[in-house]
Amino acid sequence: LKILGCDIAGVVESVGNSVKQFKPGDEVFGDISSCNFGGFAEYVCAEEKALNPKPASMTFEQAAALPQGGVLALQGLIQGGIQQSDVPTGQKVLINGASGGTGSFAVQIAKSFGAEVTGVCRTNKMDFVRSIGADHVVDFTQEDYTKKGERYDLILDLMGFHSIFESRRALTSKGVYVMVGGASGKAVQALFFGPLISRLTENKMGLLLLNPNRGMDSLITLFEAGRYAPIIDRTFPLSETAEAMRFFGEGQKRGKVVISIDADS
Is residue 228 within 8 Å of 108, Cβ to Cβ? Predict the structure, then answer.
């Protein structure tokens, strides 16, 4: 039975003979999805390339919340042409699913890059999305962003409720649509029709294919500069992992849910 969990943070217990970067006692974190998962456990075996040194200024809970969500957000923004800037760029970014784990990273990072950010979420999360930096918030239970008439340079779609054809209505003439998550049917659509639309028009549309841990150095630098912080809704002890998954599945969380070994002892 495969153990779930891809994001981990902890202290190195032992290393193999070929490991060069780490030694016992080092504090590390990373996305171990490329190492067959297994993060919901007291001990994890992972390849050296899947781990990163944990900054001293980052708690273990923050480090455990960062890897996949932060990397997805950063890679999605970069794929959409949003790059780091110290001044407002005027680029308009819409993040569909702004209150979740990846979305809460994307809002903060896009804003720190100088973009004008619109977050899409449900009614009871609008204040939260504003609090993490969104300039505008759309309540998807009341409004359809594809029909509002607003145009965006990038739509980062973490929910996949709309077809890419509907989403294209909300893009500028050279805007980019990047699907990060959502319904499997919409993902297949983005995978097959996105490249076709990209060839026939000036819009670029497609699916983000995660490259685990790529860009982590940039995320660490941004964290240490105070440009964003992992948002943790609740922390559960390891013994309550099933309850944590139920809470996650209810769709009411704001930011990330973390499993803590310390809380279990």
Answer: yes
- 196 CB-near residues (< 8 Å, 6+ apart): none
Predicted confidence at residue 34, as pLDDT, reads 92
Give the pLDDT confidence of 19-60 residue by residue, as tens digits: 999 999 999 999 999 999 999 999 999 999 999 999 999 999
In degrees, rounded to 5, the angle at the alpha carbon of residue 133 between the alpha carbons of residues 128 and 63 is 80
123: closest CA among 138, 101, 105, 134? 138
Are the C-beta atoms of 35 and 45 separated by less than 8 Å?
Answer: yes
Q: Which phi and psi (to 5°) does residue 152 adopt?
A: -125, 145
What pLDDT does residue 186 have? 84
Nearest to 95 by CA among 115, 72, 120: 120
Can you tell me the distance from the alpha carbon of 172 to that of 81, in angstroms, rounded to the nearest whole number? Answer: 13
pLDDT of residue 1: 63
E strand residue ranges, 108-164: 116-121, 136-139, 152-157
Which conformational region is residue 201 in: left (phi greater than 0), alpha (psi within -120 to 50 degrees), or beta? beta
- DSSP three-state, residue 77: helix
The CA-to-CA distance between both ends of the chain, in Å, stands at 25
Question: Is the predicted pLDDT of residue 197 greater than 90, yes or no?
Answer: yes
Q: Look up residue 95 and give its two tokens.
A: 């993040």
CB 73 within 8 A of CB 102: yes
Could you tell me the pTM of the whole model?
Answer: 0.93
